[in-house]
Amino acid sequence: MTSQPFISSAFTRTILSHARQSGLCQDQLLQRSGICLSLLDGQDLQVPAHLVERLWRECERAGAGASFGCDLVNGMATTTLRGLNILLDSAATLRASLACFTDFLPRVTNYVVAELEEGGGQARLHLRSADQQPHFFGLDAATLTLVRNIARRLGRVPVEVFVAVRLTPQQAAGQWLRSVGIEVLEGTHPCLSLAATSLDEPLLGANAFLHQSMLRHWQTAAAQHTRSDSLELARHWLTAGDQPIERIAERLGYRQPSNFIRAFRKQFGITPKQFRLGL
Fold first, then answer.
1. Which of 9, 55, 252, 257 has CA 20 to 30 A from 205's CA?
2. Domain ranges of the chain
3. Reading across the β-sheet that carries 191-195, which strands appear in turn?
């Protein structure tokens, strides 16, 4: 069961904050993009990705320049990853840091999928769309944030870390990348290439205790998210067929049906049997 594509409310607030600083009208942008303020109130709320895509387009229509996404880098680094940067900064090596990034990015957004590939003496970090191609403002913000943060974690300037960066034809990040000496290529999606040996370099902010603490936090959050998805699937099975509740519990990995019933009631306020009866 695939979740609806979403982008975190923290990222959406960062876009709006930058839009205000650029002289754009926030109320008008919200109205035209169809985003309700209630979606932005909490730190862990999810905004449907198509509404954020509409927000990007409305920013562009309202006069945001081509470098609008590039200028979001500072806000991206400090607010949008909801503490994920602490986990990434405190890892022992760049490889461990990027593994956490690819594993937990879906908790921040499932609209872009990060994948690390190794071969030919290089490591390539791909940013592929899980749905339609994201607006180039968002791709610029993500690409430059990764370039700057990875170099910062290694304590080196970007040109000493990256062999080349591939961008989509619409992106404006190429100007900044070339200005710091990085080769820019064209591709279907952003891709950061660096020497494979860089992956095993230690990070400046490595902190085993902090990293393990943050890792447990993110693993717990991911497990809760997975459990919530499985209970949504349970509702579908309860509605669509006549499988025994014990069988549904077994299919979802619950050893005891009572544990499934307890989790279902905690999530939805009623038992699976009551849900099936339409109560």
1. 9
2. 6-200, 210-276
3. 112-119, 122-129, 191-195, 162-167, 183-186
